[in-house]
Fold:
Amino acid sequence: MYRKISQDVKLAAIHLHEHQLFSLENILACVRFSESMFWRILKLWRETGDVVSISNCIRGRPHILQCNDVLYLIRLVRHRLEWFLDELLFLDELLVLLDTNRFISVHYATIHRELERVGVSLKNISSLSSA
Structure:
């Protein structure tokens, strides 16, 4: 089971140990984490001066479509609403236009997801074209 240990508790355990105010067993009993965890935290403290490791990586998968690409898709949809009334033709046409004009080859699900994320759906398009 994973339990997040707060930064304050880690610092308190290190300070109690470094000032030799309590034995290691008493400190571990109070803070309720393992001895191996304590030694990892202490090593990190001595190496970096902090008890929390800094993560430099971005989690998840990188986006294939950048912001400019999504804006391009939105401009295409607004420019020619009548092209995109049929959902399959809509996504196929966007696939072709992205590939030829922006040199980006993506799956139709990626386009669908990105357009939904910015609030463009087939329902919105059909209501705009009828207005």
In short: The mean pLDDT is 81. The radius of gyration is 27 Å. Residues 87-102 form the longest helix (16 residues). The helical segments are 7-18, 24-31, 35-48, 67-79, 87-102, 108-117, 122-130.
